[in-house]
Amino acid sequence: MERPIALVTGASGGIGASFADVLAKRGHDLVIVARTQPKLEESAARLHAEHGAAVEVLAADLETGTGVDRVGERLADSTRPIELLVNNAGFGSYGKFHEQQIEQQVAMLELNVVALVKLSHAALGPMVERGHGGVINISSVGGYQPTPLYATYSATKAFVSSFTNAVHEELRGTGVKALVVAPGFTRTDFHERADVDASMPGFLWQSAEAVAEASMSAYERGRAVCIPGGLNGVAAAFSSVMPAGIARRVAAVVSQRAT
After folding, report:
1. N or C: which end of the chain has fewer CB within 10 A?
2. What order of strands is seen across the sheet that includes strand 29-34?
3. What is the CATH classification number for the domain harbouring 140?
4. CA atoms within 13 A of residue 54's CA, in its CB half-sphere
5. Could you give the CA distance from residue 216 to residue 30 in angstroms, rounded to a whole number?
6. Alpha-carbon span 135 to 176, nearest angstrom
7. Tell me: the pLDDT tens digits for 13-54?
8. CA–CA separation, 111 vs 65, rounded Å?
9. Which of 168, 151, 163, 146 is nearest to 223 (CA)?
10. Which of 126, 131, 220 is nearest to 173 (CA)?
C-alpha cells in the first residue's frame, strides 16, 4: 500500500519541522518546503533514517510569486498526488506599525495570506476531484483580537482563521477537510525572527511537537478549529466575547509583557 504524501511549508524548523516528524511517524511520505536547500536536505535524511519516509525537498521562497508557483505546480501534479497540505510558513514582527519598514509588512502579507490562499487553492481543486485529502492552515490565538505591537501579524492570522473556517464549511460532503490551528506561545525561532525576547511564564508555553500532535488529532476527527492547550482555548473564547476596547487593551498588555 502506498504511503500518502503530505506537503509541509516552513518545514525547516519549529512547528513545520514538528509536523514533518509527526506525519512521517504516522506513515506519510513528505514534500518539505522552505527557503534553505541544505537545511531541508539534512531534515530529509533524518526523517528517512528515523521513520522510513520518502522525502522530497523543495526549496522555494514563498514571499515571491516564483516560489509560490513552484509549490503550486507540485500540488497540482496528479502523478504524485498530495493528500495533505500544511500551510505553516509565516512570520511576524514586533513594534508600532508606523515605525516599521513597510516592505517588511507587505512581505508578511504576501507570505502569511497571499501564499497561503494560492497554495490552498492549488491543493483543494485536485483533492475535491479525487474526493479525499485536506489542508491544515496555521493561524494563531493572536488572530482572535487586534494585537497592538503585532498589528499586521494578528490581522493576517485573523484572515487565516476566517478563511479556513469558511472553506471548511464549503467542503462539507466532498470528502476533503480544512482545519485551522491557532497555537499560543510555542517554543520555536518565531520570536527571534520577530525580534522579541519572550519572557512569559513557562506554563503558558507549548512545544512545537505538542502543537503538531494536537493538530493531527483534530484533523483526523474532522474538526474545523484546533486551539492547542486549555489556556489558549479559554483565552480565545474570552477574546470572542469581550468588548473590543477591552480586548485591545488586554492584548496590548500581553504584547508588552512578551518583550
Report:
1. N
2. 55-59, 29-34, 5-9, 84-87, 133-138, 176-181, 225-226
3. 3.40.50.720
4. 5
5. 15
6. 8
7. 999 999 999 999 999 999 999 999 999 999 999 999 999 999
8. 10
9. 168
10. 131
Average pLDDT over residues 164-187: 92
Compute how many other C-beta atoms are within 10 angstroms of the C-beta atom of residue 246: 12
- Cα 86 to Cα 16, 20, 94, 96, 212, distances in angstroms: 8, 9, 25, 30, 10
132 conformational bin, left if phi > 0, alpha if psi -120 to 50, beta if neither: beta
Burial tier of 216 (Cβ tally within 10 Å: 0-12, 13-18, 19+): buried
Greater confidence, 153 or 194?
A: 153
**pTM for the model:** 0.85
Measured between alpha carbons, how far is residue 237 from residues 211, 221, 230, 231 in Å?
Answer: 18, 21, 11, 10
How many domains does the structure of the chain reveal? 1
As a whole number of angstroms, the distance between CA 103 and CA 89 comes to 18
Residues 81 and 250: their CA atoms lie apart, in Å, by 45
Q: Tell me, what amino acid is at 69?
A: D
Q: Which residues are catalytic?
A: 153
> If you average pLDDT over residues 128-145, what whole number do you get?
95
Which own/partner contact pairs does 237-243 have at CB distance under 8 Å and 24+ positions apart? Answer: 239/141, 239/144, 239/145, 240/144, 242/145
* Number of residues assigned to the chain: 259
**Which H/E stretch holds residue 98?**
none
pLDDT given for residue 254 in this prediction: 46
Q: What is the pLDDT of residues 190-216, one digit of tens each?
A: 544 544 445 554 445 578 999 999 999
